[in-house]
Amino acid sequence: MKRKTILMVITNLNYGGAQRVFYNLSVELSKRYHVVECVFNFDSGHAFKTGNEVYTLDVKAGKSFLGKLYNFYLRCKRLAEIKRKINADVCISHLEGADYINILSRQREKVVCCLHGSKLYDENIEGFTGWLRKSLLIPFLYKRSGFLVAVSRGVRQEFITHFGIDKSKIRYIPNFFYPEEIKQKSTENIPQVWNDLFHISPLTYMTVGRLVRQKNIEGFIRLAAASVRLTRSKWFILGDGELFQSLYAYAKKLGLQVYSWDDTNSGKLEDYDLYFVGYMKNPFAWLKKTDWFILTSGWEGFPMVIGEAMACGTPTISTDCQTGPREFLSDKDYPDSPIVTHSLERYGILIPLLTNRLSDESFNKLAFDLTHLAKDKTLRNQYAEQSNVRIQSFTPEYIVPQWCEVIDN
Fold this sequence. Notes:
Radius of gyration: 22 Å
Helix content: 40-55%
CATH architecture of the largest domain: 3-Layer(aba) Sandwich
CATH superfamily of the largest domain: Glycogen Phosphorylase B
Order of helices and strands: EHEEHEHEHEHEHHEHEHEEHEHEHEEHHH
Distance between the termini: 17 Å
CATH topology of the largest domain: Rossmann fold
Structural class: alpha/beta
Strand order of the largest sheet: 10-11-9-8-12-13-15-14
Oligomer: single chain
Largest sheet: 8 strands, mixed
C-alpha cells in the first residue's frame, strides 16, 4: 500500500523549541509516512537535519509594506507548487507565518496547523500589527484550516474561547520527549571547575533559555538577589540572546556578584552569586547538577525545557503562565484567577507571574518561602522522583499515535 505523503512546513530551522518539535515529529512520522520538509529559507542556518528531502521557498521577508506583501504572495505561490509537485496528502505547518501560507496555498491536501504558543498573552504581539493579527488574521485564517493541533490544553481553550474556533476542529496533542536519550546526555561531563562549584555550593538554581522578553530572566535575577540575602546559593543562566547586556547590567544594579562568559572576570569562580554561562550544546549535563530548575516566563505554549529538566530528574519551580507549565506540574485544572503565592503541586512548584504587579512585599515573601522549601532535601528528592514518573506521559509511544489519528482520519 502506498504511503501517504506528508509535507512539513516551518519558517526556519534554527535552534528553537518549535524547530526541535518539528524535527522530532518529522523523524517519527517518517517511520510511517513519506515525509518531505519545507522551510522559508536557510538564512538563520539548518540546525535540525532529519535526512528527509527538504525544499526551500527561498523568499525573504521583504523590507517595505508592499515588498512584504509581494513576498508573502510568492511564498504562497511556491508552496502551492511544491504541494502539487510532491502530490501532498497532508501539509502540517509550524509557527504562525507558516500556518498562513499553508492555509492560503491549499490544494486538495488536508491542511493541519500546529499551534505552539499563546497568542492572547504573547506580549510581542503588540501595536497595530498585533491588533491586526489578533482581531483579523488569526480568527479569520485559522477558521479556514482543515484541522488545528494545540500543544497544550490552555492554547486549545484560548483558540476556542477567544478566537472562535469550532472545538471539533482543534485537538490537544502535547509535544514529546526522548527521556532515556536526555538522561544519557545528562551523565556527560562538564568542565571540572564548574563541576566542583556545584559540589561545594549549598544550594543551586538554574534557568535555561534564550535571553528574550518572553523568558522574563529579570524575574529570575530578582529572585536571585532576594535569595542570596537569605542564604548562600548560586544562580546559573544557560543561554544567550538579545537582552544579555541589559540583563547583566540589571543583575549588577541589584548588587549581585555577576560572572559572565564573555567578560574578563576577576576573582575565584566561587566568589560569584549569579553566572551567565552562555549557550551550551548539552544543557542536560548542567541541569543534572543543579538542585532546582526555575522557569520564570511571562507566557508559554508548551515549555520543552520543563520536560527536559524532568527527564534529568531535576525538580522544577515555574511561573503559572496562562498556558503550559501547569500541565506539566499539576493534575489540577487552571484556576479561575491567577495564583498569588506559591503552590505545591504533584510534580513541582508553581509560583505567580513575576511581573510589576507583584509588590515588593509579596515578592520578598515569595523568595523567603521558596528558599525555605528549596532547602528541604526530602521535598527535593520527592519531586525528583515524581519528575521521572511524569515525563513518561510525554514519550513518542503515547503521542505519535495521536498525530497518526489526525493524519489518517
